[in-house]
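Batch 3, record 17
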Amino acid sequence: MSPNQKKYLNKKKKEKILVIFFQISIIVFLIGIWEFLATKGYINEFIFSKPSNILKTIINLYKNFNLINHIFTTLYEVIIAFVLGIFLGFLIALLLYSFKLLAKIIEPFLTMLNSLPKVALGPIIIIWVGANLKSIIVMALLINLIISIITIYNGFIQTDKNKIKLLESFNANKLDIIKKLVIPNSLVTIISSLKLNISMSLIGVIMGEFLVSKSGIGYLIIYGTQIFNLNIVMSGVIILIIISYILYKIISIIENKLLK
Amino acid sequence: MNKLLEIRNLSKSYNTLDGEIKAIDNINLDVYEGDFIAIVGTSGCGKSSLLNILAGLDNNFEGIYKFKKDITFSYMLQTDCLFNWLNIFDNCKIGLDIKKDKDPKKIDKINELLKIYNLEEFKNKKPSSLSGGMKQRVALIRTLATNPDILLLDEPFSALDYQTRLAISNDVYKMIKKEKKTVIMVTHDISEAISLANKIIVLSKRPCTVKNIYEVKLTGATNPIENRKAKEFSTYYETIWKDLDVNVT
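Prediction for the assembled complex:
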């Protein structure tokens, strides 16, 4: 290895360490200052909670209130909504791509649905579907499906016209073109829609749990609010942050594997 | 001589919301076995539309064209159109895959052509690891893989830089002569047409009609690069240049 290359690698390594160092420092600093301000009474512990209390609450929830069960409920709902969203999104996008006229007719409705704040439909969903897990899934699907359809469809229509022409010159039919060109060509878009979809599914599930639920992280947060125990609310939020980060990372790993 | 293709009174109009645009006006042409025909015209004159019609990609035209019975053709486009998720070998094979043609002779042919053009070691690599010139060679092998009688080439070198363009057109010429293929090539490059073709069809501006047909005869013709040095070259160039009547306004 040449000295210059060594220098370059060293520089990159130092940079990486520096980034991680500051990231950890920020977290430690924020937690520290939060704990300090609450303990010294500069901020109201009752309203703002504090890190040590949150940790105690999480342990307590784990021991006495079946925290694992709540986490699994939320994860279960997220995964169902995610899989359904991707699957249906892909199928509907394919349908729209295969029938251009249909796509033209549907487009303004999709845009309308996409810009509608779906939470407004919450009460209607509860009445139509019932106050149960199904409502939560429907809520999450409403939020992730439209955006999945739009993203995947846009991937499909960006297929190079010349490549379609090439296959047509070999007498390819529509199915050949979709199977051999359009779908593999849109793989990158489809995978990036997974990332979007997982975040949207989590948002939808929590929204659904806010409206109607007997367990789950969203339920914990609402329950904490109702009995005015901010420790529970903050614990729920912290657990959510961790869950969403882990889910996002898992999708990233899958993405890297698939795109290799 | 063996006539492979006959075009009679071919016209083509495009319908747009702003009105009808005539792209091709009454073209007549005969193509014989072994011909290397270059169709030259200014950009946007409708020469690619003509090739689209011949390739069967556009059925909306007037007039007739008739291939000789059981004649097959293959189409090569301006860009290499390689699929970046398939390796080089599978890219070459895509035409056979679509036609569900499992003829082992054709597979052998692909391997042979890959070997001739020093692409064998890249057989299992993705197109992203090839240079522009190599990609265009792969595109040509893909075009030849279905063993067509006629090749339709739509500005096949226009995406390449000048040096690569000369080298690749030399390769293509050799490959086509060796395989005894008939070629119809569309180009806007006059010198490319003179150096490659034995017959040049000059098209007028839109709507395009056949303005002139030249039989190219060069003294000491060997290959496209040497052909550019022939003494008749500049005469052809000037005549065709005048025919095209290019004005930049």
